[in-house]
């Protein structure tokens, strides 16, 4: 993994970079050309990933009617994100049994079937949203159906 030191304003040449101004977050550089035109009265929007974690085994023993209710709740949530024009992308992940893990140690690549670690909750999917600030992202996360039966991790995105 490559770790980059934070850049200082004097290290940035010209006007092709700008600092993000998202409240409560580290300021970081973004390409000026990547910024969207302000459409919320001058508010610059920022992307957040809502990572949906839950116990994937819980669905195996769930009655069909209850599973249908949950799926319908996720469909309605996705539609609400689209209607609010904040949804950038979303996907559901296949079970961890379908995962493949890749590691490189001492220059040798190791490919292993299954997830990296056994955990109580697994990453089941995500929503990538574009909202004005962290408070808006947290509000959307609280409305996600996964918040009532698992965990929603909210993470700001550094657009590259």
Descriptive overview:
The longest helix has 20 residues, at about 65-85. The strands form 3 sheets. Strands 4-7-3-8 form a 4-stranded antiparallel β-sheet, with helices on one face. A two-stranded antiparallel sheet has the order 1-2. Strands 5-6 form a two-stranded antiparallel sheet. It has a single domain (about 15-155), classed as Dimeric alpha+beta barrel (Alpha-Beta Plaits). It is an alpha+beta fold. It contains 2 helices and 8 strands.
The helix count comes to 2
Give, in spatial order, the strands making up the sheet with the most strands. Answer: 4-7-3-8
Low-confidence segments, given as residue ranges, are 1-40
Q: What's the CATH architecture? A: 2-Layer Sandwich
Number of DSSP E strands: 8
Globular, elongated, flat, extended or rod-shaped: what is the shape? flat
Radius of gyration (Å): 19 Å
Helix and strand run: EEEHEEEEHE
CATH topology: Alpha-Beta Plaits
Which homologous superfamily in CATH is the superfamily?
Dimeric alpha+beta barrel
**Number of structural domains:** 1
What structural class should be given to the helix and strand makeup? alpha+beta
Fraction of residues in helix? 10-25%
What is the CATH domain class?
Answer: Alpha Beta
* End-to-end distance: 16 Å
Rounded mean pLDDT score:
79
Largest sheet: 4 strands, antiparallel
- Beta-strand residue fraction: 25-35%
């Amino acid at each position: 993994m490559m770790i980059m030191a934070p850049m200082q304003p004097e290290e940035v040449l010209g006007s092709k970079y700008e600092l993000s101004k998202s409240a409560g977050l580290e300021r970081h550089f973004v390409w000026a050309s990547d910024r969207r035109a302000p459409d919320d009265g001058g508010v610059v929007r920022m992307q957040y990933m809502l990572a949906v974690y839950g116990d994937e085994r819980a669905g195996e023993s769930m009655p069909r009617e209850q599973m249908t209710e949950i799926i319908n709740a996720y469909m309605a949530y996705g539609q609400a994100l689209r209607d609010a024009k904040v949804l950038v992308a979303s996907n559901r992940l296949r079970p961890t049994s379908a995962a493949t893990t890749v590691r490189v140690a001492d220059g040798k690549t190791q490919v292993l079937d299954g997830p990296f670690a056994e955990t109580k909750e697994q990453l089941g999917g995500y929503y990538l949203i574009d909202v004005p600030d962290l408070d808006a992202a947290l509000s959307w996360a609280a409305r996600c159906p996964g918040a009532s039966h698992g965990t929603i991790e909210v993470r700001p995105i550094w657009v590259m």
